[in-house]
Write a structure and sequence with these properties.
Elements: H1 8-20, H2 27-38, H3 41-58, E1 61-64, E2 71-74, E3 79-81, E4 84-87, E5 92-97, E6 102-108, H4 116-133, E7 138-144, E8 148-159, E9 164-175, E10 180-191, E11 197-208, H5 215-254, H6 268-280
Antiparallel strand pairs: 1-2, 3-4, 4-5, 5-6, 7-8, 8-9, 9-10, 10-11
Helix pairs in contact: 1-2, 1-3, 4-5
Length: about 280
C-alpha cells in the first residue's frame, strides 16, 4: 500500500506521532504543519482530541484559573472526569478544551480529605522553593486516593526568537502510609539554529522519609527532600555538559579538517565522484 491510497484517518494516525514527539513550546507549529498535510480540518478535529489530551496530561500543561491570578496544571493526578481537573488550592474544578487550549468553564469543587492540612502545608513550602529556584515555574499539590500527596513542578523556558526551547517537569508522590517518596524528572531541550539538536532525559527517584505526626514538620521534610534530589539531578546534568564540552566535542573537533569554512554538503557527492574518477585514471 502506498501513501496515496491511505484514508484520511490512516494519514492522521501516522502523522500524530509527530505531535506526540514534538519539542516543548513547538506543539502549535507541528499542529499547523499537520493541518497542511491532512488538508481536512473536520477529519483532523474528529480524530486528534485524544492525542492532544494525552499530550496535555503528560506535559503537565499549565493553565490560568478564571477570575484569579493563579495557575494550575492538567495532570493525571487532578483529573476527576473527562476534561475536568481540580485545583486544590482554589477549590475549583475547570473544564479544559484540549483542542482550543482554553478553559471553558470553572466551578466550585470541595472534597473532604484527611490529608488537606498536609497538602496545604506542602504547597506553602513548594511556593517558597519555586521562588528560590524556579522564578517562572509553577508547582501544584494534589491528593490521590486520600493516601498520597503529589507535587508537580513545571519550569518552561521558550525562546523561539533565538531558536531554543526547554522544559523541566517533575512529579513527586509521597505515600503517607509507607513514608516513601517516588519522583520522576523529565527534561526536554531543543536547539535548532543552523541545526537540530535535542536532549531528552528522564530520571527516577525512590527515597524513604521519617514519618511524624507533626504535619508542619512532615511538609517541610517532603519539600526539603524534593529540593535535595532535584539539585542532585541538576548537578549531574552540569557534569554531563562539562564532559561533553571538555572531552567529547573536543575529541570530535580534532578529527575534522581545519579549513575555517563551512562544509558545503550539496557538493559532497561531487567531491566523492571526482575522487573516484581520479583513482580510476591512475
Amino acid at each position: 500500500m502506498n501513501s496515496y491510497s491511505l484514508s484520511v484517518e490512516e494519514k492522521i494516525e501516522r502523522v500524530l506521532t509527530f505531535l506526540t514527539s514534538s519539542p516543548p513550546g513547538e506543539e502549535n507549529d507541528v499542529f499547523n504543519d499537520i493541518r497542511g498535510i491532512i488538508n481536512d480540518d473536520q477529519a483532523l478535529q474528529d480524530n486528534i482530541v485524544p492525542t492532544l489530551t494525552k499530550l496535555s496530561i503528560e506535559r503537565f500543561q499549565v493553565v490560568d484559573i478564571p477570575d484569579t491570578a493563579l495557575k494550575t496544571m492538567i495532570t493525571q493526578y487532578n483529573q476527576v472526569e473527562d476534561n475536568k481537573y481540580v485545583d486544590f488550592n482554589t477549590k475549583k474544578a475547570i473544564v479544559f478544551d484540549h483542542l482550543r487550549e482554553k478553559v471553558v468553564s470553572c466551578e466550585d469543587y470541595e472534597e473532604e480529605s484527611t490529608l488537606e492540612e498536609l497538602r496545604s502545608l506542602v504547597q506553602k513550602n513548594v511556593v517558597g522553593y519555586l521562588e528560590d529556584r524556579y522564578q517562572e515555574g509553577v508547582g501544584c499539590t494534589f491528593i490521590v486516593d486520600d493516601s498520597k500527596v503529589v507535587v508537580c513542578i513545571v519550569g518552561n523556558k521558550f525562546n523561539p526568537e533565538n531558536f531554543w526551547n526547554g522544559s523541566w517537569r517533575s512529579s513527586w508522590i509521597f505515600d503517607t502510609s509507607s513514608g516513601t517518596i517516588e519522583g520522576k524528572v523529565s527534561v526536554h531541550i531543543h536547539y535548532y539554529e543552523d541545526g537540530n539538536v535535542q536532549q531528552i532525559s528522564n530520571f527516577d527517584f525512590n527515597e524513604q522519609l521519617n514519618l511524624t505526626d507533626d504535619n508542619s514538620e512532615l511538609a517541610s521534610s517532603i519539600v526539603k527532600k524534593i529540593r535535595a534530589l532535584e539539585q542532585q539531578y541538576h548537578r549531574s546534568l552540569n557534569d554531563h555538559y562539562s564532559q561533553l564540552s571538555q572531552k567529547t566535542f573536543k575529541a570530535f573537533r580534532r578529527m575534522l579538517p581545519i579549513t575555517r569554512n563551512k562544509v558545503d554538503w550539496d557538493k559532497i557527492i561531487n567531491y566523492k565522484i571526482g575522487e573516484s574518477i581520479e583513482n580510476m585514471s591512475k
